[in-house]
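Ticket closed. Logging final result for Histone-lysine N-methyltransferase SETMAR.
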Amino acid sequence: MFAQSTKPFQARLKSPLRGVVLQHDNATPHSANLTQQWLQRYSWEILPHPAHSPDLAPSDFHLFGPLKRHLGGMAFETEDDLISELRNWFDNLDVDFFRVGINSLLSGWQKCIDLHGDYVEK
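Final structure:
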């Protein structure tokens, strides 16, 4: 394990991307005033997310599983080593990986609409 940085994430992020469309699950850290101010400052658009619908978060069902499999069994000496490995993994993903995730989101949203906002199952 590596030592946790004492700087907040926002302070460590040197030049955040502008115009990002972000979907999150409205958890308390995501909806906190400080987070909302940061998102507004950098013009990140927030996609709405129905309560109790984890299937509608591509990070939950499409990203984290493959990432966990990739990182499984690895150990990192420093936070920078981990960041380097993450960047390498993302840089080597095929565009189809992201296309599948986005298309899954669209079909999931349609199911949610068809169910009038009720829980969506895969």
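The longest strand covers residues 21-23. No further action required.
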